[in-house]
Structure formats: structure tokens, C-alpha cells
Amino acid sequence: MFAALPTTSEVFSRLSWSEIEPWYRELAATPLSPETLQPWLAQWSDLSALVDETLVRFEIATTQNTEDREVARRKQRFLEDAHIHIQAADQQIKEQLLASGLQPEGFAIPLRNLRAETALYREANLPLLAEDKVLGDAYMEIGGSQMVTWNGKEVPIITLYSVLDDPDRERREQAWHTITDRQLQDREKINNIWVKQMQLRQQIAHNAGFESFRDYQWQQLLRFDYTPDDCKAFHAAVEEVIVPAASKLREKRRRMLGIERLRPWDSYVNPRASEAPRHIADVPALLQQCLPVFQLIDPQLKAYFEIMLQENLLDLEERPAKAHGGYNLPLEVTRRPFIFGHVNTINDVVPLIFHELGHAFHTFETIPLRYIQQRSERAVPIEFAEVASTSMEYIGALYLHQSDLCTEREAALIRIQHLEATLTDYLPTIVCGDAFQHWVYEHPMEAQIPARVDEKWAEIVRRYLPVTDWSGLEDELNSGWQGTLHYFCLPFYFIEYAFAALGALQIWRNFLHNPQVALRQYRHALSLGATRTLPELYEAAGASFTFNAEVLQDLTQLLLRTLSELE
Predict the structure, then answer these.
(1) Over the stretch 280-310, which tens digit does the pLDDT of each residue have?
(2) Beta strands 327-331 and 314-315: pairing type?
(3) Contact between residue 374 and residue 107 where contact means Cβ atoms under 8 Å apart
(4) 221 contacts: CB under 8 Å, gap ≥ 6
């Protein structure tokens, strides 16, 4: 009924718009009826998967090597020559489906999402959105190019983050200053990117009929189940419950370290450890050692992981010109996940490997869903996608010793540090980032003045992370916001981590009580993709999408009890 599509995104990525356009024209020319709907939707889904995977593979390639000019050129050509037209054609297809009044089975939530996306669309915004993406790529390129001299060698700046775990305080401080000194060299470059993005984003919002970019992005992120005011209420609950508990733990850390003041380079070291975390020289060997963890959790999860190892779908080694950060991205044509990140020490296993594998498991579990609109990364609520990943941190950490991945002492130290960090760093830091972004887009003119942004950032950090002493380090504190890629590349994608952590803690609590039931609920919820509302997905996983002070207090007590038992 429809013309054959390319079978790989590699072929598709080399096509011009004139070669791609006939597939969209064919869809647009097809009258929709109950008889034509299924094959039409399948063709649109497969075509969209080719577009999606093409963009993802370009993202992977440019982050794997930020100096590869040929890949950057091909990506830019595709964005400018093809993708800008694809977006316009895709908008026409969305409107065609919505106008038909037809509702495919299992498509109620995707249709809701399509209505929201269609309402946002403005042709005038296409070049602005592309420019914002280019600026985000420029920010990533700056991070990938940051090299420092350490122990007589030129190394990527990210290599030094593992040194912040070293019990030797002088060494930690030296590493911290080496990192921040190098980052400050790019302060003006990043400020310039930021100011351009603030202006662009405000224009994008106005073009779409919104007063602020926050309102635009709220709809773009398909946030139907909570409001900015709900986020602010959550900020207040964190300040009421988490900040006092975190401050006590940080004060305990100060006493255990035997120091008068807790400085920024004292935030990550484990005060119970007498030596630095074990360095990982052979990342592929480490990944093989992780397999028994998932055999103990669920053999099917292990099978998914084995597929990724066999098909070389992980890039976790350190090397020059590799972008900062970590991610899992689904490849929609091959129906596989791809994991990217930086493993330096055994401490990276839980927050990086286990976390990103949780995202990967989500991709595998949604394979039976026929249409990309039911499963794509953009369609699944991020607040639940991060539950999939964060749950694996808490559950996987239970098996570090039993699987022989770690010694018993190593496992206990990793778990204590991970659980403590949930309270002392993770939740407060996320709320800092979310509060910061609310301020930025409520004050778009002030946010174009980097000095004012610095000032506001420092104020927010002192509010939610009050124990750390920043005296004499004002420049480093003020510019701290520049190190978070989300503000530049994924605006407002941040509070999801906090909501997801609390959802994951509920699943972990269920797992401690009944592992089989908890895993069954977890995998079932993942398999639903984007076919349920956010509260329904949490409920399917055995959790509640509720984040008031009472819930925070309950989960805080669970963490504190577990820490006490581990110690």
C-alpha cells in the first residue's frame, strides 16, 4: 500500500529532503478511514523511527568525538536540509490524524500528546529551535575540549572527578581547584551561549503565544499532571524535611573527616574509607562482572544486558574529545538502547551503569508496542522514565557483594555513600536546579545578565545546601550553574529526577518486602510505554505520584534506618 522505506537510519541519514518528501506526500494524500488507519499509522511510525534514530545516531557520534568535524558537518546538513522540512511535514500528518477523529487502539495518551505538540507548532520557530540546538551542541563541545594537566599528563577534565573521592584531602582540594580553574577559563564563552539561548527561548515562547518559555516548555515536556506551583510546593517540602536531615548528615561527615569546615572538595569523599575507590582500568571486564547482579535480580534483565554487550551498545571508557555526561538513548529502528558515559572507579557502577541500564530495560520492555508514538523517549513521561533508571540503582546496589562484583566492605561503603547522597546531595541539588530554572524563566530579562544569574544561583545553593563553606571561593560558587548541561541542552528537564527518586524509593521499599511482586510490577509498568498517564504508570509500578512533606518524611526515615543498619 505504501512505498518501501529504507531499512536503516544510516541510509536515511544520507538522503536529501527531495528524496524524503515523497513518503510524507504519500501519507498526506491517503484518506483516513477505519480500513486505512492501521497501515497508514504503521508507515508513519516507521518513517518517524528513521528520523528519530538518525538524530540519535548523530547525537551519539558527536558526543563520542566532539572533534569529528565530518560528523558535525553531516549532522548540520541533515538538520538544515532535511529535518526542518520533516518537522513541517510531520505537523501536517499529526493534524491529518487529529482531524480524522479516529482513535487507534491503545492510542488515547499518544493522541493527547499529539494535540499538545500540534498546538505548540509554529513554522517560525523551526529555525529558532535548530539554532538553540546548535548552541547546546556548542556548549557540549566546550565541555568535551576541557583538558587539564594531572600527574604530568594531559587528561580530560572529567577524569579528575574520581579524585574527589580520595581520602587524601590535599589531593582532593588540588583536583577540585584544577577542575574549577579550567572551567572558569570558559566562563565567558558559556555566558555568551547562555545569553543567546535566553533571547532565543523567549522568542520561541512568544511565537507560540506564551508569556514565558516556562509555559511553552511545560507543554513541550507534556506535563499534564502537575504545575509550576506544585514544583514550588515540593521545593518547600524539601526545605522542610530533607534539608534538616541532610544538614545533620553533612555535620556528621565533617566530624568523621576531622575538619573544622566542610569545603566543596569534602562533599563526595566517603569519610568511612581509608583509601580511594578502586580504579577501573578495564571497563569491558567490569561490565561482564555486572552480569551476575542482574541474574540475581531477574534473568530477563540479564538477557537484555547480554544483548547490549554482544552488540557493542555501551560506550563507557574515558578518552580525549569525549563529551561530558551520561545517557541512554533508544535506537528506534533497531529497537535497541545505547548507553554513553564515563566509568573511572567502582563508585560509578551504581549511579552510572545501573542507572542507565534501567533506561535500557525500559527500551527493551516497550518493544512489543507497535507505534513509536506509544513508546518513544519523548512520549514516555520523563518523570517515569527516570523511575525506571533510578529504581535499578537502589535494587542493583543490594547485590554488589552477593554477585562478587565488590568485596563486602566495598559494597557497604558504596551503599552507604549512595543512600546518604540521596539526602545530602541528590534531592537538594535537583531542587536547586529546578528553583533556579523557575527563577530564570520568570525573570527573562534579568536572566540575560550573567552576573545576576550568578548571584541568584549562589543564593539558591546556600538555601538548599547550607552546610558547605564557600568562603574565598565566590567565583567558583557563582558560576556553578554553568556545569549543568540540562540548563543549556534540556531546559526544565531536572525536577523529574527528584520525583523519580521518590518513586524509585517506593519501588525499592516494595522490593525489600517482596522482590518477585516488586519486579513484576516494575517490568509491567515499563512495558506500558506512553499508553498511560503519569499517575497510572506510578501506580502500575507500585508507587504513588505524591510528593508532599508526609511522603518525604516517610522515605527519609527509610533511608536513615537503612543507613543505621549498614553502619
Answers:
(1) 999 999 999 999 999 999 999 999 999 999 9
(2) unpaired
(3) yes
(4) 382, 492, 493
C-alpha cell, 78: 541533515
Evaluate whether 332 touches 52 at the Cβ level (below 8 Å). Answer: yes
In tens, the pLDDT along 420-439 reads 999 999 999 999 999 999 99
Residue given cell 523557575 in the structure block? 438
Report which of 134, 153, 156, 161 is spatially closest to residue 145, judged by C-alpha positions. 156
Q: Are 65 and 71 spatial neighbours (Cβ–Cβ below 8 Å)?
A: yes
The beta-strand segments (E) located in 515-566 are none
pLDDT in tens, 111-139: 999 999 899 999 999 999 999 999 999 99
The letter for the amino acid at 410 is E
- Closest residue by Cα to residue 325 from 176, 102, 486, 85: 486
Nearest residue to 492 via CA among 273, 201, 179, 260: 201
pLDDT at 496 over 90: yes
Which contiguous run of DSSP H or E holds residue 331?
Answer: strand 327-331
CA distances from 64 to 13, 45, 286, 381, 393 (A): 18, 28, 20, 27, 25
Cα–Cα nearest to 88, from 156, 41, 20: 20
Tell me the pLDDT tens digit for each residue of 342-382. 999 999 999 999 999 999 999 999 999 999 999 998 889 99
Report CA Rg, the chain. 23
CA dist 521 and 532 (Å) reads 14
Distance CA 168, CA 152 (A): 19
For the record, the C-alpha cell of 454 comes out as: 550568578
Give the residue among 455, 510, 448 at the shortest CA–CA distance from 477: 455
What mean pLDDT, rounded, does the chain reach?
95
Interacting residues of 3 by C-beta distance below 8 A, sequence separation 6+: 22, 23, 26
Q: Alpha helices, DSSP H only, in 78-186?
A: 84-100, 108-120, 125-144, 169-185
Q: What are the cell numbers at 303?
A: 538477557
Residue identified by cell 529558532 is 128
Residue 418 falls in which region: left (phi positive, over 0), alpha (psi -120 to 50) or beta: alpha
pLDDT band at 324 (very low <50, low <70, confident <90, very high): confident
Domain ranges of the chain: 9-102, 283-420+500-533
Residues 149, 154, 158, 161: is their CA dihedral positive or negative? Answer: negative
CA distance 437 to 396: 32
The three cell numbers locating residue 367? 518493544
- C-alpha atoms less than 13 angstroms from C-alpha of 513 in its C-beta half-sphere: 10
Check the CA dihedral 52-53-56-58 and report its sign.
negative
Helices 427-442 & 228-237, crossing angle to 10 degrees?
140
- Give the strand pairing for 336-340 and 314-315: parallel
Q: How far apart are the first and last CA of the chain?
A: 65
Which single residue is written with the C-alpha cell 544520507? Answer: 14
- pLDDT higher than 90, residue 102: yes
